[in-house]
């Protein structure tokens, strides 16, 4: 019912298979020694190529057992002929192995070349896209400059057409202030006036006004006369003099009240 969590995986703790030492009796050649060159990760576990190698070794041992003895000249010639045939077979097999290896290398080389071409195509496409973006940006900037120059020349022509004779005119202040579309009320940006430039610097940002803690601190620092207002009743105005006459200001207020009613 309990589980454990280790710091390592089972694959990290797995070691290579153990190969114990061995002793070969004298006069015996065990078949297992043909696999002595194979190790774990390099031929083991055995695949199709290793099985074919084992079968060829068995066939060669069987062929060596069928070789005639070297007791007379005829047997020696027959033995030499059989060995020449076996040597030709081995050379043919070796050529086939070399051809297979070259085909595998050729396939790998083809894949590498194809991958390099794909990478080069991607790089060329990216480079062309960058060039296109730069040309588009330069084109837009050139069009903006042409439009700006066109507007400037049109304004110059309009101003020149207004004053064909080239006479100097005095400034008409009354006309400027009566026309709400003039430079006085609506100045243009192209003459150097920027109404919305750096407008954020006029925004008031205060800790005591924008935060609740600042408001509490500001309220605590104020005197009681600010938070606790005491209203005094106004005293009535004295409209009668010491001698008993009504003042002129009082008579005027009464007359104004009557006129208002």
Automatic annotation (TrEMBL):
The keyword Magnesium does not apply. This is Cilia- and flagella-associated protein 91. It is found in: Cytoplasm, Cytoskeleton, Cilium axoneme. One of its GO terms (cellular component) is axoneme. Transmembrane segments: none annotated. Keywords: Cell projection, Cytoplasm, Cytoskeleton. Residues 4-156 form the CFAP91 domain. It comes from Atlantisia rogersi (Inaccessible Island rail). It comes from the Eukaryota. Its main location: cytoplasm. Coiled coil: none annotated. The keyword Cytoplasm applies. InterPro entries: CFAP91, CFAP91_dom. Belongs to the CFAP91 family.
